[in-house]
Amino acid sequence: MKRLTVILLGLVVLFALAACGGTPPTPTVAPTPTFTTLAPTPANAATPQSGATLMPNVATVESVVVNTQSTTPNEVEVTIKGYLPNSCTKIVRIEQQRIADTFTVTLETLREGSNCIEVISPFEETVALDTTGLAPGTYIVSVQDTTITFDLK
Length: 153
Prior knowledge:
Blueprint: H1 2-20, E1 35-38, E2 53-56, E3 60-67, E4 76-84, E5 89-99, E6 102-111, E7 121-129, E8 137-143, E9 146-152
Parallel strand pairs: 6-8
Antiparallel strand pairs: 1-5, 2-6, 3-4, 4-7, 5-6, 8-9
């Protein structure tokens, strides 16, 4: 009986020491962005004034359409349609970033004023993707929660 107690006690100590150790974390390498470009500021963009608030991801995207039919080789345009939450919110900057085969387009908005009519305001923006030097293949475009693929020839 004493021998069984010693063995069980030894196992408990062994498990306790093993639990305190652990395996070293596996190093991961985050993908490096290939490029980030800013699309031209929309013509109807608001100019920041006092009391203006930058608001990311408030534009609701209803559709994303990719147009690869252009007179310029490898030119790809993305048309984004959706709406903004009120009449005081405007799109002030459109940013695109590519990591590997995925283009991420971000719509940065600005809300000015506090007396806004709470009615949705539709928008339509066209962004030319920077496909310079890309090999033919299938690519992904992600705008807010909407994702679409296109083939570059």
